[in-house]
């Protein structure tokens, strides 16, 4: 997207058609403070039933009514500023904590032209990335308060309000505060940067290789977070003997190394968005390990013995205690970091994105266990021809078996514990590709849970489109995203031989989101951007009849529905049936 094109960071779309400058100027001219009609200061914006106890009633106050010393940003932003409130959105705040380490990225999300003093009009604006475009969201500064304290995100100093207002703007975009309960760190990272995120199993790397990868990623501006996986829902929020919270998102803010009597110690610095509950194991703030470190080194590492949610941990202990690292590359070129964390030579990336929908009875074929219908899923063809400018090990492995979701059988991978005895993998020249599939607007649509989705990549050998049942029944994919997951987005970085491929995106169950049409008196159509339009039953029957005729003309070819733009634009994008699931597929190809 060019700098001034609608949807770019410099010229974002106006959410709810609200223009910040005109609204602010109007309030300044009239001497009034802005009140947002699209996100009112009442229980509807909270999205939860009110507390039955009158003592816990929520009041909506402006910052200057909460703190007489209220400021938008006090000095400069820092990771110690953000604390989580009574809302399960640690995933969002961990991503926001990571963002504060990058001033340029932060200014893109939080424009600097706003304050609680100069030209104050009770209105603020923020920018978020949404499925290929940047969106500007305007909010008033009424914030929910209970017993004199902010109910949700807040600053540790209690008089700084930028984080609370960012959270409010994101909640408005999602529909309500309650819509932010539970999420994946990568979701927040992508929406704050427009980048592409991927998950890394910590057990797949040795501690030293992991430290090198994290160090290189941080130096390239990559946002990093991590968490401890839980065995069941009851474990979420429980604290380990080492003071770590299970199922909770932590931001990785720095990496460094120190020397003691035993030699080099590789360290990572983590941040708990709560602002408290810290790690108490080796190399924690008050641990005796620091007694062996020179005072100048401790000063350089900014070792502070206070419970502020930020702490150091050795990479060895980190690898034992944590399960997953989430990496969000702000631009495609930052993805070119090899498994040892070394920079590759400069490379260029081609970005291609597609948008479409799973339509029941047409392009919703389910997983590959549905052999008769899998071919109906959306198919995206791409050709990669130029090899990488650097050598690397083949990164693809089927680290997650699909089990019942897929009938595929792939070669087992080498486990970490066997790496010492395994033969070194041969360095090969291939083409790097990052593929991502996003479910659009699921969080906004009546708080519907995400569907279980995955994608498979097949190599073509001269086949013409569309590909039918026979092709998929006789071929195995060369790469896949892993098991079906109920996430907003799934992504995978793979290295493939030059050639032509087809990417097939699918849901776990065939028609798992289908609503019985015979029980519907009317169907809701169109993307819900400014309200919902309704069709009468006769209009619906006529439209569905036209769609069926179109499907017959195309012989059920889901491929054509996604590649022949005149047909797709005319029939499907403007009239996406409510039972469809809109998707956005992004592919980064290193050339």
UniProtKB/TrEMBL annotation:
Tagged with keyword NAD: no
UniProt-annotated catalytic positions: 90, 248, 272
PROSITE patterns: CALPAIN_CAT, THIOL_PROTEASE_CYS
GO biological process, one term: negative regulation of apoptotic process
Start and end residues of each Calpain catalytic domain: 33-331
Pfam families the UniProt entry points to: Calpain_III, Peptidase_C2
Record's keyword annotation contains Protease: yes
Family: Belongs to the peptidase C2 family.
Protein name per Swiss-Prot or TrEMBL: Calpain 12
Organism: Scleropages formosus (Asian bonytongue)
Taxon lineage: Eukaryota, Metazoa, Chordata, Craniata, Vertebrata
């Amino acid at each position: 997207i060019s700098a001034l094109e609608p949807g770019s960071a410099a010229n974002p779309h106006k959410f709810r058609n609200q223009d910040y400058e005109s609204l602010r100027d109007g309030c300044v001219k009239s001497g009034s403070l802005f009140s947002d009609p699209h996100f009112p200061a009442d229980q509807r914006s909270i999205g939860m039933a009110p507390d039955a106890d009158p003592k816990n009633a929520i009041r909506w106050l402006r910052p200057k009514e909460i703190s007489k010393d209220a400021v938008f940003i006090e000095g400069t932003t820092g990771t110690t500023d953000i604390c989580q409130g009574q809302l399960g959105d640690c995933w969002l705040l961990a991503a926001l904590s990571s963002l504060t380490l990058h001033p340029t990225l932060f200014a893109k999300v939080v424009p600097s032209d706003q304050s609680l003093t100069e030209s104050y009009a009770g209105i603020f604006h923020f920018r978020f990335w949404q499925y290929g475009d940047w969106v500007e969201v305007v909010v008033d500064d009424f914030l929910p308060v209970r017993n004199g304290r902010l109910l949700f995100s807040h600053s540790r100093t209690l008089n700084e309000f930028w984080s609370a207002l960012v959270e409010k703007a994101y909640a408005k975009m999602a529909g309500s505060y309650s819509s932010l309960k539970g999420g994946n760190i990568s979701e927040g990272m992508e929406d704050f940067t427009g980048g592409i995120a991927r998950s890394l199993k910590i057990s797949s790397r040795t501690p030293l290789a992991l430290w090198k990868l994290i160090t290189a990623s941080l130096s390239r501006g990559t946002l990093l977070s991590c968490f401890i996986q839980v065995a069941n829902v009851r474990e979420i929020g429980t604290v380990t003997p080492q003071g770590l919270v299970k199922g909770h998102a932590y931001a990785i803010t720095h990496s460094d190394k120190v020397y003691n009597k035993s030699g080099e110690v590789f360290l990572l610095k983590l941040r708990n968005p709560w602002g408290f509950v810290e790690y108490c194991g080796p190399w924690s703030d008050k641990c005796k390990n620091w007694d062996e470190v020179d005072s100048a080194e401790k000063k350089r590492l900014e070792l502070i013995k206070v419970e502020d949610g930020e702490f150091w941990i050795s990479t060895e202990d980190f690898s034992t205690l944590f399960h997953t690292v989430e990496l969000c590359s702000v631009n495609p070129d930052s993805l070119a970091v090899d498994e040892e964390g070394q920079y590759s030579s400069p490379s260029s990336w081609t970005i291609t994105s597609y948008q479409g929908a799973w339509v029941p009875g047409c392009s919703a074929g389910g997983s590959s266990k549905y052999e008769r219908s899998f071919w109906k899923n959306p198919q995206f063809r791409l050709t990669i021809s130029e090899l990488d400018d650097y050598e690397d090990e083949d990164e693809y492995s089927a680290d997650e078996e699909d089990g019942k979701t897929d009938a595929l059988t792939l070669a087992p991978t080498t486990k970490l514990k066997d790496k010492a005895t395994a033969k070194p993998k041969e360095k090969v020249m291939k083409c790097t590709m990052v593929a991502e599939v996003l479910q659009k607007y699921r969080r906004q649509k009546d708080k519907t849970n995400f569907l279980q989705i995955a994608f498979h990549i097949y190599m073509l050998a001269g086949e013409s489109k569309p590909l039918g049942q026979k092709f998929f029944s006789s071929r195995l994919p060369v790469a896949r995203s892993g098991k079906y997951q109920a996430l907003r987005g799934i992504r995978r970085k793979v290295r493939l031989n030059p050639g032509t491929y087809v990417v097939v995106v699918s849901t776990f169950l065939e028609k798992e989101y289908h609503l019985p049409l015979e029980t519907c008196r009317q169907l809701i159509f169109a993307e819900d951007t400014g309200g919902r339009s309704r069709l009468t039953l006769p209009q619906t029957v006529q439209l569905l009849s036209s769609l069926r005729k179109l499907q017959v003309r195309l012989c059920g070819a889901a491929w054509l529905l996604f590649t022949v733009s005149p047909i797709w634009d005319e029939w499907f994008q403007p009239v996406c049936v409510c039972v469809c699931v809109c998707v956005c597929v992004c592919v980064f190809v290193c050339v």
